[in-house]
Give the backbone structure.
Amino acid sequence: MVKKLLNEPVETLTGVGEKVKNDLNLMDIYTVGDLLEHFPYRYDILEIKPLSELIHDENVTIIGKVMYPPTVTYGRKSSRLQFMLQVDQVTVKAVMFNRTFAKKHLTKGTTVTLTGKWDAHRLQITVNNYQLGKPNTDVNIQAIYSVKGNVTSGRISNLLKQCIQEYADQIEELLPATYLKEYKIPTRSEAIKQIHRPENQLQLKHARRRFVYEELLLFQLKMALLKQKNQSINKGFKQVFPNNKVHQFIDHLPFTLTVAQEKALQEIFNDMRSPIQMNRLLQGDVGSGKTAVATICLYASVQANRQGALMVPTEILAEQHYESIREMMDSNIQIGLLTSSVKGKNRQKILEGIKNNEIQIVIGTHSLIQEEVVFHHLGTVIIDEQHRFGVEQRKMLREKGLHPDVLFMTATPIPRTLAITAFGDMDISIIDQMPKGRKQIETYWVKENMLNRVLEFIRKKVAAGEQAYIVSPLIEESEVFDYQNAIDLYHQLQDYYSKTIKIGLLHGKLPPDEKELIMKQFMKNEIHVLVATTVIEVGVNVPNASVMVIYDAERFGLSQLHQLRGRVGRGDKQSYCILIADPKGEVGKERMRIMTETTDGFKLAEEDLKLRGPGDFFGKKQSGLPEFKVADLIHDYRALEVARQDAQYIFQHNLLQKDAAFQKLSERLEEESGDQRFD
Ligand code: ADP
Ligand code: MG
């Protein structure tokens, strides 16, 4: 009975019509229960201060009484609602955009709490959030939700208010009561209320702590289940390849392997030769030579009469790896490229080639394992810079009846202990050494007023035959963020260099063939300066590029900056990374400082760990770490350890099956394990 309530579709909530429903569905919210578990991604914590203490242009919260009912005016694309508010005997003007519906609530005499940008000169607030009445306390914590479609965070917040009133009491506990007691964490029902509408920071902290633990425990239990399943399925095979052939291949490479590369290879080869399926993570800083190692493994797999596949997150990368691996590979080995832009006859030909073993190595995006690709005899799969934990990917392969050796690669250095816990059943190899002769990348942090000097520096480098990247956080102008955008920048630079330098523009919204063309031109040095968004972040390799300029660098996390910087310094030229940033906070400044001081990824990761506050996510997308809704593996490392121990205990004692206190947990686990949704 109870369960059914939470399973009701979201449209049962008052005010959720077709449009809102569709938007919510976009966010994977289908039921009331889903909405309750759509947690805020951050909070605005606002203190209510007297008007005289408010700072111009800052986000503030004020409380006042509506003096006259609002007036609404309509523009071409927006509506503007305006009213006067009395705050401590002072009249303040409030403006809201595209919130005509608020009019009916803001009747004369109503007390409201407004949050928004303060204009101290005009005594005006541009509202981005409003709440009827006074907040319970002087500290107002506003949950901010990630959104899709036209639904605003405020709307979600309001829906949740209704949802919590009507449903929160139906939420069942998942954890045994003994756990709640031992860890002093609130019940699930309480915690749901508090994570959405915390009254104070302490409440929020405990609610969050509860979900962190719950999430990590479920994760660790899943890992344990998976491990058990893997062990019980008879799978894996030996890949036998002649050592001398592989060594010949290595000897023919244009460089000598580093000791670290050799060690990693040895570990991988041992796995490949063993009858058990390889399940290994290869960690190494950007440029440490992971791709080179991967190429050798693919070669070895072919020598064992098996096929090899390399899966990368973007088409650009796939194409680039395809080119560079083809160059390194023996000419009698056929390599295929499979991405979503390989279409029609060509695609058919490649699919057939994979099926009948004419193609021995395939390089591509996710489509490699998700679509109806039939391998003749797949031996090794390498997954580079995976976005997500590979559990699903391995499951896909298993479901096709394949048990290839799998190697994951990531460029985000993660402390070894953390990696072992986070990756559960994986083996780990580390390349902790850079190839010889690499020059250190010189990193500088400048303010925007130095831009001309930066541009002249680029001019000099281009004249010397080198190339530059200029990265900007946004593609196009945004109403929300006041950051440089790639399209404007591209035009500005064209003006500035007036045709003396060829400039290219690369961003995620371009059609794939255009992206490819631009990337090719940049690789051939037909484009000298590439203006880009972070699409170039992962793995792009143009050794002739020696300058990386990052605009609004404070917008990026340390690991992302490090990844971007890793795009240069790939050849023998002295390379430079220039961070253009004017961070307001101490943390931002410290980040810039660290970037200028170290190029060692492991050290950077450690520094980042010390610096990070809540909400600063450590390049989750690129980290290769599993993604969580609430937990944050680096921050919540302790909880992860505890969860792991508990999961092991639960498993060893068969509590999921035997102990009634664990029944709900067991059910949830089953539900989630059956969930095959992909990102
Ligand atoms: P990663 O994939 O770890 O970012 P890559 O394998 O792409 O690194 O290597 C970066 C560059 O260094 C490539 O141009 C590659 O050819 C070169 N490289 C790889 N290993 C070595 C080595 N042992 N010595 C010299 N250069 C190397
Ligand atoms: Mg790489």
In short: Residues 201-232 form the longest helix (32 residues). The two ends are 32 Å apart (CA to CA). The chain is about 40% helix and 20% strand.
